[in-house]
Amino acid sequence: MAANAGASLTWPAAAVLLGAGTAMVYPTLPVAIGDVAHPE
Fold first, then answer.
1. Cβ contacts of residue 30 below 8 Å, gap of 6+?
2. Residues 7/14, Cβ–Cβ less than 8 Å
3. Whole-prediction pTM
4. In whole angstroms, what is the distance from residue 16 CA to residue 6 CA?
């Protein structure tokens, strides 16, 4: 048995939240670069 069995749902929940946050932020990065970079 794991030493920290009470937190067995904490890590998957944190991973889901981290993934959702990354999915919301990631598309804005190329847009921000495209707004600043010269088209040529």
1. none
2. no
3. 0.57
4. 18
- Report d(CA 8, CA 29) in Å as an integer: 33
DSSP 1-40: --TTGGGTTHHHHHHHHHHHHHHHHTTHHHHHHHHHS---
| Pair of tokens at residue 26 | 């990631």
Instruction: Give the position of tokens 């088209």.
Output: 39
Q: Going residue by residue through the chain (40 aa), what tens digit of pLDDT does each one get?
A: 455 656 678 888 889 999 999 999 999 988 888 889 887 7
